[in-house]
Amino acid sequence: MNYDFSERETAFFSQIDELMQSLAEAGDSDRGDTGAVGHRLRHALKRLAETPYLKLGLQAQEGLDGPSLMRAMEIVSSLAPSLFLSVEMSARVFGRILSTWGNAEQKERWLAPLLKGEIVGALALSEDSLNVENEPLKTKAKAEGDAVVINGRKQYVVNGPVADWIAVAGAIEDKNAIFLIEKNAAGLRLGDRIATVGYEGAAICGLSLENCRIRADRVVGRFEPKEGLGKIRLWENQVIVGASLGLMKAAFESAKDYAKSHESGAKPVIAYQEVGFKLAEMLTLLQTSQLLACRAAWTAEHMPEEADSLTLCAKVFCTEASEDVAGKALQILAGAGYVSGNAAERAYRCAKYGQIAGTSTEIARVRIGDCALEKP
Amino acid sequence: MDFAFTKEQLMFKQEVIRFAEKEIVPRVREHDLKEEFDFESFRKLGEFGILGLHFPEDLGGSGADVITTVLASEALGEAGVDGGLTLSLGAHTFLCADTIYRHGTDEQRKKYVPKLASGEWIGCMGLTEPNAGSDVASLKARAEKKGDAYVLNGNKMFITNGPIADVAVVYAKTNPELKHAGISAFIIEKGTPGFSAGPNLIKMGVRTSQTSELIMNDCVIPAQNLLGEEGEGFNMSMQTVEWDRSALLAPFVGAAQYMLKRCATYANEREQFGRPIGKFQAVKHKLANIRIFVEAARTLVYRTAWCKDQGRALNHLEAAVAKLFLGDWSLVPTNDGVVLHGGYGYCHEYDMERIFRDGRLGPIGGGTSDIQKMIISKLM
User: Fold this and answer.
1) Is the CB of residue A194 less than 8 Å away from at least one CB of chain B?
2) Which ipTM did the prediction report?
């Protein structure tokens, strides 16, 4: 047992923090035009590729593991949440699809440049059914000679408007698979970029596929529906847990700094219990979330049979905590928090996403409950 | 980071669960109803070795590390042992015996620790007073040195094991002008003239633990019953916080785990509208709330324990975070456990109402949640 990060990890966190301080200056909350968002993402990926960050979870990195990644994700998310989401959907989720199910040629073709920050990836999973984990995917593919033809519609594709390659989840025969579709492929139509409550610096859209023909060597894996989608959901959920930690951290720090520097009645407002006690509750939620998230990340690597349910526990707890912490931060910051452009306001707007995306909070609780019922 | 337990730690935890389920749990409900201390169970805890796990073998212990000790406390809760008995154990082992072990002379250790580790004697600790709780500096109990004796006067309040203890570690001021630095710790044995306990206080939960006032009225004890040096009492009392935020919190985690298991079993068996109630999402929601609380809480408790195993000084901020979370965030999940059982949850025999009642001590005992918030907001 060890609750400390090593010197190697601490040095890595400092490296990421320093890098992100410079990348975050570009204005993470700016919706900006899609071209600018793409340019900023590519620049960030290039810079992050100079560190081990993009490789974590995809290739073994000496002295760094799941908890290291979780803490590093917290740092990136706290400084630039939109950029974080974009980077993670490309490197971690798109990347893990290739590193887990890709064959040698596919890894060479897509994973290698991805880890160098040379290409941007996206995952198109969500459909308009309530829960893709329980419903068969409506996106269908059919083999035709040495090609595959895909039809379907996807929604909320993070990086959709800026990605070079989109990993589309769909059904083929009685299995599921991932289809790698290039941005200008015939039959792929990207929808307009979606305006969102938070993460407005990320580029998100829906897409449709109409007789989209790809080469058969661009099909990644064929797996049982629950197995494959379950893994993708786990990776997404881990990303969202990391995002929530960062939002919490940013909101808490801004509220704490304000409470220590803003005076009322000739003393800093933190000296008033209504403020100081709120901050205590916020820090309790943050520290508890950090520990639970790291334990879930460690469990995913060392006790995979327990990873799904513990990660869901972490996701529910951390995402709900992030909304709570961000809300309390806004209350402490008062008027200063309600003005757009501060970390607490940004965290408040972004926090809800975590409870909706990946496995929603409702579905997560149902599955945690199922797990308890299976092993009373 | 590494969250793995050793094989030995995990095996020992299972051993404790099996022992407790067989030897202790069958009597829990009866004693809780009668609000009686279970002397027989306490004796068995001593025989099994749980009362002195972390003490060295030559003092009757097993030399266990802190994590193992915490796992044993958690295991008792997980087996279904009531919070009253685990609280008594905590006050006995960690607040009384451990203070003597850490700060006593060799003579004091040899005299008291083996008897406490075996359960032959029961110990308690007297710090809180009727008008001095977390504000320790304001305590009024007085100890005056007269020749080779100390004369103690004052009252202690809410003392776990007070009515049944054979020996007490009591804090009193030897130099009131020095406030914290004027507090000293003393060992007082049952039967000492001028030393008595009030009647057992009727409580909402943890009912099998016996709680009372301790009264010192010209209580004369030998000077060698001073623990450590004069003026060291405050620091000694603060050191017990390390145990308070780990081994004393662990049974609450275990109890929530026990509640989860009972709730899942009930939800699988109980049928309404033609199907087990576990099929309803609202029931799963409650099960999830309990599980999430258990997982979040246990990580905080283990962190405190692990730091203590590393020999680190207590991080008061992290310890307060653990205490605050265990206390305040347990309300919803333990309430969910009661409600999930419907009418049965409100009845004694299903254990849910007892766990809910026992858990209400969490935000109060050992420093209220407000005190934890005060500590956290000052240290951040």
Assistant:
1) no
2) 0.95
